[in-house]
Write a structure and sequence with these properties.
Helix content is 42%, strand content 11%. The chain has two domains: 159 residues, Alpha/beta knot, CATH 3.40.1280.10; 61 residues. It is of the alpha/beta class. It has a seven-stranded parallel beta sheet with strand order 3-2-1-6-4-7-5. It is globular. The chain contains ten helices and seven strands.
Length: 259
């Protein structure tokens, strides 16, 4: 409860998801999200281009007893940079999206996340700006979407509420831990590894005129990215796909754009 201290709070949390706040607008909201995280022993906070800069004294003041989260927060210029080392990402969004993504409840998502983290995967949860939420380009970087069954007439949660809800489900999932990947199993590819592969694939497809007509190129690129990000690709899978693209680039001559 408010004002209550817990001296037995964990000093070094075990495997946990990184909470990634994309373009948060107010320092107070960042501080409130940090408090919500630390309520449940989470301290891995990443900030992407906060509107009012960083560090922010208003965030520190609002964080109160959760200063540890603020002090350990890392600053990133882009969502891609913030997710580069993560292999599984969940996007929180209240909007209906015309995207093919697994949609999970907070309970389902955090039970899965805990299992994956216990098996050595690096997991993250994306939270969007307070006014508009996550952009489609950010949601496309996620493996799945977290949808909260709120009132359809008023579905929006503020940043701290969303962080509190996800943190609560993360803590609650400790009692329902499923068996994670066994030691020695191949790890999932990170965001940075997928980015490099998609850049290579897109460049090769550009070279052979695949994206035609040009007006449809953005949606075709997004669909391809979504296809590979939805699949639980391992590092070995991505190396194999790199090899496939390189082989096709050597063996297959360029061709004219399709009519």
């Amino acid at each position: 409860m408010a004002g209550t201290n817990h001296p037995d709070a964990p000093e070094e949390p075990g495997p946990q998801p990184a909470f990634v706040l994309v373009a948060p607008q107010m320092g107070e909201n960042i501080g409130a999200a940090a408090r919500a995280m630390w309520n449940f022993g989470l301290d891995a906070l990443r900030l992407v281009a906060p509107r009012d800069g960083w560090p922010n004294p208003r965030a520190a003041a609002m964080a109160s007893g959760a200063a540890r989260v603020i002090e350990r927060a890392t600053l990133h210029d882009s969502t891609a940079e913030a997710l580069a080392d993560l292999s599984v990402v969940y996007a929180t969004t209240a909007r209906d999206r015309a995207m093919t993504r697994r949609v999970l409840s907070p309970e389902q998502a955090m039970a899965e996340a805990r299992s994956l983290a216990a098996g050595g995967e690096r997991v993250g949860v994306l939270f969007g700006p307070e006014r508009a939420g996550l952009a489609n380009a950010d949601v496309l970087r996620a493996s799945a979407v977290i949808s909260v069954p709120t009132n359809p007439a008023y579905p929006s949660l503020n940043l701290a509420q969303a962080a509190l809800l996800i943190g609560y489900e993360w803590q609650r999932s400790a009692g329902t831990l499923a068996e994670g990947p066994r030691p020695g199993d191949a790890g999932r590819a990170t965001g940075a590894e997928l980015d490099r592969f998609l850049e290579q694939l897109t460049a090769r497809l550009d070279a052979v005129g695949f994206f035609f007509p040009e007006a449809k190129r953005p949606s075709m690129v997004a669909n391809l990215a979504g296809l590979f990000r939805r699949a639980p690709l391992t590092e070995a899978d991505v190396r194999t796909l790199h090899g496939v693209v390189r082989a096709l680039a050597v063996k297959q001559p360029g061709r004219k754009p399709r009519d």
